[in-house]
Automatic annotation (TrEMBL):
Family from the record: Belongs to the sugar phosphate cyclases superfamily. Dehydroquinate synthase family.
UniProt cofactor note: Binds 1 divalent metal cation per subunit. Can use either Co(2+) or Zn(2+).
Protein's name in the database: 3-dehydroquinate synthase
Positions with a binding annotation for NAD(+): G105, V106, I107, G108, D109, T129, T130, K142, K151
Source species, domain of life: Bacteria
Keywords in alphabetical order: Amino-acid biosynthesis, Aromatic amino acid biosynthesis, Cobalt, Cytoplasm, Lyase, Metal-binding, NAD, Nucleotide-binding, Zinc
Single GO MF descriptor: 3-dehydroquinate synthase activity
Classification of source organism: Bacteria, Pseudomonadati, Pseudomonadota, Alphaproteobacteria, Sphingomonadales
Catalysed reactions, semicolon-separated: 7-phospho-2-dehydro-3-deoxy-D-arabino-heptonate = 3-dehydroquinate + phosphate
GO cellular component term, pick one: cytoplasm
Major localization listed first in the record, in broad terms: cytoplasm
Length: 362
């Protein structure tokens, strides 16, 4: 199935299907005018899946130039941006060529940014291999590397030409990474799609166990939600895209508290953050306690943490609030919190007093 991202002359298709990797070559022929494609990937993904992608491309008459980087968040740095960009130039990649990002969000963000600056912009294609990247980072055109001052602080809005999603790739993903990505799936239901949240309550177990139909439905629904949001607010200027940050202000503070270490994966921080956003909204009378409890129960039922201490983090409200003040989503000295009136009813709230958040967290 195909979901379209409607952005005028920068529109692109997201192709989704079990086993689609085998058809990647046929899909990519129009994006390989020289009959070769550079594929940027990480060592873990390369070991498990690069042979299959290469075979598919070769069968379509496309030669592959692989660029394999180490796995992990630390890869998203200046040194690798330079390395990838210089390699692409040495390979003779031209503006009309596409560069393929084959991996999770780390590879997608870095490769997209490299494509945005290569010869002032060449095309690129996302073939995401983690659940998080299949439902979130591969769609929407945010690209970045990390800087000394913080995560994702250097980058560009730069849309891919195509996204190819094969849920079968998730078979090799560690369960903890799968669950972390699942938190971002739940997020779409919590923002504005109560029916999807209900569907997830019924189908989460099958989805996480690898049921192909459930996976495709969840990924397609997530991509459709993200595509609509991005089409309405590509550059995060009118507040619509900000809703995608539900759970992220709290989550980001928790990640910062752990020094962005493996102790807390991004999606785990988001799970706790969403539970806290509902908890805070309930405590302050914005939404019902029943909805808050229902959200926490669902996240916990799949093994996601819903409280800082269930992830082994004991932070004071004060220290978490201090991290929130560092958040790049601050504007005019005020934090915009994404709060809720209920499940599927998220909104941007600029009236939140940080001291109340501190007190709630304590
Ligand atoms: P990741 O790319 O580091 O992948 C997680 C781990 O899974 C890595 O060790 C990787 O090697 C491994 N892996 C990937 N695919 C695999 C597979 N199929 N089988 C086995 N192992 C596999 O992390 P991620 O969670 O995909 O992405 C996180 C990154 O995405 C962060 O840098 C974050 O800032 C970024 N992000 C970007 C956006 C955006 O809009 N651009 C949105 C959300 C997150
Ligand atoms: Mg996120």
């Amino acid at each position: 199935m195909t979901v379209d991202v409607a952005l005028g002359d920068r529109s692109y298709p997201i192709h989704i299907g079990a086993g689609l990797l085998a058809r990647a070559g046929a899909l990519l022929v129009p994006l390989a005018p020289r009959g070769r494609l550079a594929v940027v990937t990480d060592a873990t993904v390369a070991a498990q899946h690069l042979a299959a992608l290469t075979q598919s491309l070769n069968e379509a008459g496309i030669a592959v130039d692989p660029i394999v980087l180490p796995a992990g968040e630390a890869t998203k740095n200046w040194a690798n941006l330079q390395l990838v960009t210089e390699k692409l130039l040495a390979l003779g990649v031209e503006r009309g060529d596409a560069v393929v990002a084959f991996g999770g969000g780390v590879i997608g963000d870095l490769t997209g940014f490299a494509a945005s600056i290569l010869r002032r912009g060449c095309r690129f294609v996302q073939i995401p291999t983690t659940l998080l990247s299949q439902v979130d980072s591969s769609v929407g055109g945010k690209t970045a590397i990390n800087a000394a001052a913080g995560k994702n602080l250097v980058g560009a809005f730069y849309q891919p030409s195509m996204v190819i999603i094969d849920p079968d790739l998730l078979d090799t993903l560690p369960p903890r990474e799968l669950r972390a990505g699942y938190a971002e799936v739940v997020k779409y239901g919590l923002i504005d799609d109560f029916a999807f949240f209900e569907w997830l309550e019924t189908n989460a177990a099958a989805l996480l166990a690898g049921d192909a139909e459930a996976r495709v439905h969840a990924i397609a629904t997530s991509c459709r939600a993200k595509a609509a949001t991005v089409a309405a607010d590509e550059h995060e200027t009118n507040g619509r895209r900000a809703l995608l940050n539900l759970g992220h202000t709290f989550g980001h503070a928790l990640e910062a508290e752990t020094g962005f270490s493996d102790r807390l994966l991004h999606g785990e921080g988001v799970a706790i953050g969403m539970a806290l956003a509902f908890g805070f909204s309930a405590t302050t009378g914005r939404c019902s306690g029943r909805d808050a409890a229902r959200v926490a129960a669902h996240l916990a039922s799949v093994g996601l943490p819903v409280l800082p201490r269930s992830a082994g983090i004991s932070a004071t409200g004060k220290s978490l609030a201090a991290h929130m003040l560092q958040d790049k989503k601050m504007s005019g000295g005020r934090l915009a919190f994404i709060l809720v009136h209920g499940i599927g009813q998220a909104y941007v709230d600029k009236s939140v007093v940080l001291a109340d958040v501190e007190a709630f967290l304590d």
